[in-house]
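Re-running the complex after MR caught last week's input typo. The corrected sequence lines follow. Everything else is unchanged.
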Amino acid sequence: MGTRKYRRKTSHSEHGPGDGGRTGSWRVERPVLDPSLCIPCKRNKEACFICWLFCPEVVVSRTIPPTFDLEYCKGCGICAEECPTKAITMVDESKFSDREKHQE
Amino acid sequence: MHIIENGNVAAALGVKLCRAGVIAAYPITPQTPLTEKLSEYVESGDMKAEYIPVESEHSALAVCIAASSAGARVFTATSANGLLYMHEQVQWASGARLPIVMCVVNRAVGAPWNVWNDQQDSISQRDTGWIQIYCSDHQQIIDTVIKAYWLAEKVSIPVMVCYDGYILSHTYMPFDVPDQNTVDAFLPPFQPPYALDPDEPANLNTVTLPDVRLDVRGELAHGYMEIRYLLQEDLRLALSDAAEAEKRFAQYFGRGGDPYIEPYRCEDADFIAVGLGSLTYQLRTCVDQLRQEGICVGVMGVRYYRPFPDTIIAGALKGKKGVIVFEKALSYGYEGALASDLKSALYEHLAGTGSLPPVQNFIAGIGGREIRTEDLTRMLRAATQGRVSQEPFWIGLKL
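Corrected-run output:
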């Protein structure tokens, strides 16, 4: 199957998940959340969400606990850098089994 | 209406008649009077356009890329090092498939600094995915600008309209200025296939992966390679669109001819001189002189350099006793780029047929060195009598 019938002859993408490709495959480190340090988790109410606010890829959810969409998370580490309680750590992808990686 | 004006004014009048909506340019000799004239038209209200003065040629084309993406008909012009400075954006404009028209007023490139005419600037942009058309007189300049917009918008590929600095840009010649109503009928308002729209946001030409991908709507979208292939495919198909542009132009304005080549006394010629731009008109004088001596020569101007009309050119040169390519540019380290392309076309279409003509290559007028008609005639005569040199021969070199 090819792209011959695609409606454009240029590179054109719209706002939405996946229109830049599956960028999660670029990741070298993945964010891992420790709920015992995370402010919304500890208080069980909507608060902080600095990780959600700063994520340039919009892959952090505004939920309790915040979750990461690993399909598109590039592993930039901005969330871990900005977290005021150091609840997010960046963990080398090699620490995860192939099975875990495929469950992204 | 017939007027007597210089080549830059011919180009400016063409742009005005085409109702370009955004003009961004940085002045550089010998293009300067063209952009000055356009800024006068805008300032006086003769032309309803946004004239955006920029700090560089790179920005000039960047502005045109943005405005064209937003659906405006745009224009820019440059010469020599200005063109080289915008090289990155030149490639961008074609990859983005924007129908920008740009005049290149041909001038030598530095180093060393030189403001005179040759064609090294536009020839060095041969591989950027733009359509390149060369003009030989003022009528062709104004007509080609008008045709260029029609063609660019038909095929979504930018067009360079190239004409020789000073020889055409600063000399005065009579030419016909088409009337506005006929141009409006020939060239309807620009209807972009897509225009930037705040209500329908999109990313244009962001990182595009090597492989195809599913887009946000779940449709299989091109990878980088497909997009680049389609540019090549459409450039080759643009040869037939160029023929359509020429035919359509003739219907509206009553003049035109072969879109790709401009032959002079070629039909019965044994030898044919080939070149780009005003040099081919100078060569007509040489041809007339040599004909009087009984040497059967003709001259063929190549109007479309990209896409290269290889089939037409090979057909026109088939069975000739010799082809002599005169160039004001060089692919340094080898030979004139036109000579190489022409040999490639001849080999492709005529190899093994027994009618493959030998090709000689002359380089002339580099950096504005005067091209004396008697020198051209002498070299052309010598070329019909045997091979002058294995390497491209530089006419008028004083080493």
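None of the earlier attempt is carried over here. The longest strand of chain B covers residues 101-106. Chain B has 13 helices and 18 strands.
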